[in-house]
Design a protein that fits this description.
By secondary structure, the chain is an alpha+beta fold. The protein is 42% helix and 12% strand. It has 14 helices and ten strands. The strands form three sheets. Strands 1, 2, 3, 4, 5 and 6 form a six-stranded antiparallel sheet that branches. It starts with a strand and ends with a helix. The model is unreliable at 379-400 (pLDDT under 50).
């Protein structure tokens, strides 16, 4: 059974997270089964043709309205040896109910049956008493049968160490496996100990390799919306200043531009007369339209990211008040949305949206903060020449 997500539903303005999987459903006894989605939510609600809960799901499974596997698929032959088998227990309605209950626990960020079993293993390692072995057996049997071989995450041994440990000394594992000895129980404890040591070494290695990861959660994502102000741009500073069409006079590669959009589309044009007309456009939107119609430089797809990065640096280094607006966003991810820019630049909720504008704004923000740290005596005045990329000089040569 494969679970997919995320999904959710809204209840009184609250988001209720969920996950879904496929089941086979039929309308009435005797009718044909068809594939359908079964959605499970964190509040215990279950939807599959109708809304129900765990009790209702149990009834639907018991009456045959739902099936957990394709009813037309013939059952697998019985394994000749349970101990030697490499397959999980077959998926049953009872096991599926346990898995759904586990899924609800996971959606609520509570321990699942598998996690509780691993905790019982740690408890037994610390105190290998018969009472703790009994608790471990109970925790292991609470795991859905078709998922037990995956509890340890060992694709080679699967859950065999647990099955050995839970078998009494002198008895055969699974009835047809090896007879358990005290040495075999100790071998299992040594196996768990080696696993713990391996996990600890990996955690130590990751701590070194990921030493620059933030230690605390960052700010929520910030969305930069495309907005049209019919009465002109507001005078009070706001996040609208992050937009490329915001009128902020900048000097870049030896030329002056009324906004980032003016600079970007002027520099994209192959013809000098087009560059001049775009540079003198009445607004950023008009510059965008003129630039979209002009013939572009043949190398524009290769250099446009560097040009945009340089224009943003110019905008925010030459206008300290705008830099403070950008810096005030902290470490929030910036989602640059809208309709005027191509999906290459903006955040689109599909595979086309690359959000390069948001990424470059975050990069520029980091550079501004770095410059403030390097120049604490005058943090609002930044040296543009140190920040502009080598692309600026290349563009100046190209214009000549």
């Amino acid at each position: 059974m494969t679970w997919r997500g995320p999904t959710y539903r809204m209840v009184d303005g609250e988001r209720i997270d969920g996950a879904w999987c496929h089941v086979w459903r039929r309308y009435r006894p005797g009718s044909e089964y068809y594939l359908d989605d079964l959605i499970v939510f964190a509040d215990g609600a279950i939807i599959c043709g109708e809304r129900t809960d765990l009790v209702g799901l149990a009834k639907m499974l018991a009456t045959g309205r739902l099936a957990v596997s394709n009813p037309e698929t013939p059952p697998l032959p019985d394994e000749p040896s349970k101990w030697a088998s490499r397959h999980a227990e077959p998926l049953t309605p009872e096991g599926f109910l346990l898995e759904v209950a586990d899924r609800i626990e996971a959606l609520n960020e509570r321990p699942t049956a598998g996690q509780r079993c691993r905790e019982a293993i740690r408890r037994f390692q610390q105190e290998p008493s018969e009472s703790n072995r009994a608790l471990l057996r109970k925790a292991y049997l609470a795991v859905p049968p078709h998922l037990r071989i995956y509890v340890l995450g060992d694709m080679d041994r699967q859950d065999r160490p647990l099955r050995i440990l839970l078998t009494n000394i002198g008895e055969a594992v699974d009835g047809d496996g090896p007879v358990v000895t005290a040495e075999m129980h100790q071998d299992v404890l040594d196996y768990f100990s080696r696993g713990d040591q391996g996990v600890q070494r990996e955690q130590e290695r990751r701590a070194i390799q990921h030493a620059d990861d933030p230690s605390e959660p960052g700010r929520p994502a910030l969305i930069s919306h495309e907005t049209f102000y019919s009465q002109g741009w507001p005078e009070q500073p706001g996040l609208f200043m992050l937009r490329n069409d915001f009128p902020a006079q900048i000097v870049f590669a030896g030329e002056s531009y009324a906004s980032v959009l003016h600079g970007y589309w002027a520099l994209s044009a192959a013809d000098a007369s087009d560059r001049s007309r775009i540079r003198e456009a009445a607004s950023g939107r008009e510059a965008h339209d003129l630039g979209g119609r002009a013939t572009h430089r043949s190398d524009w797809p290769l250099v446009r990211l560097a040009v945009m990065a340089g224009l943003l640096r110019a905008k925010f280094t030459q206008h300290p008040e705008l830099a403070q607006v950008l810096v005030s966003t902290g470490d929030a991810r910036i989602s640059y949305t809208g309709f005027s820019d191509s999906p290459f630049w903006r955040d689109v909720p599909d595979s086309r949206g690359r959000n390069w504008m948001g990424r470059l704004l975050e990069l520029t923000r980091s550079e501004l903060l770095a410059q403030q740290l390097l120049r604490p005596e005058n943090p609002s005045v930044l040296n543009q020449e140190e920040l502009l990329s080598g692309e600026s000089a290349r563009l100046r040569t190209h214009r000549k």
